[in-house]
Write a structure and sequence with these properties.
Blueprint lengths: L6 E2 L1 H4 L3 E2 L2 E6 L2 E4 L11 H5 L7 H7 L3 H6 L4 E5 L17 H36 L5
Parallel strand pairs: 1-5
Antiparallel strand pairs: 2-3, 3-4, 4-5
Keywords: Heme, Iron, Membrane, Metal-binding, Transmembrane, Transmembrane helix
Protein name: Cytochrome b5 heme-binding domain-containing protein
Subcellular location: Membrane
């Protein structure tokens, strides 16, 4: 490894974001990958978009081989001061709203009952009116 245990802040690493001077942070370690940019199979743009931040997720999401991970050792220049790296935000699902769910279920049930009862009431009313207005046949 080329690093001598130097600790960098994220602000210091963020000053190295060009294709002439490119540093990235992966798993708390700082790598100067400037010499590798031209050789990167995905092109230099892929790496350049991951500068100035913790690129661990970007690196892991691609699914780099163990060989690619081992290659990082030759570009190692130091460690990142973890206090300067913003905490990762994790997706938190909104709490399930049980009362709203129960209201939806009860209103659905009420609608189904009304869809059944209203036609029966109309039919009963029609039969009742018919029987009262029917003239007796002689």
């Amino acid at each position: 490894m080329g690093g001598d245990g130097k600790v960098f802040t994220l602000e210091e690493v963020s000053q190295h974001t060009s294709n002439q001077d490119c540093w990235i942070v992966i798993d708390g370690k700082v790598y100067d990958v400037t010499k590798f940019l031209d050789d990167h199979p995905g092109g230099d743009e892929v790496i350049l978009t991951s500068t100035g931040k913790d690129a661990t997720d970007d690196f892991e999401d691609v699914g780099h081989s163990s060989t690619a991970k081992a290659m990082l050792d030759e570009y190692y220049v130091g460690d990142i001061d973890s206090a300067t790296v913003p905490a990762k935000t994790k997706f938190v699902a909104p709490p399930s709203n049980q009362t709203q769910s129960n209201q939806n279920k009860s209103s659905d049930f009420l609608i189904k009952i009304l869809q059944f009862l209203v036609p029966l009431l109309i039919l009963g009313l029609a039969l009742g009116i018919r029987s009262y207005t029917k003239t007796p046949s002689s």
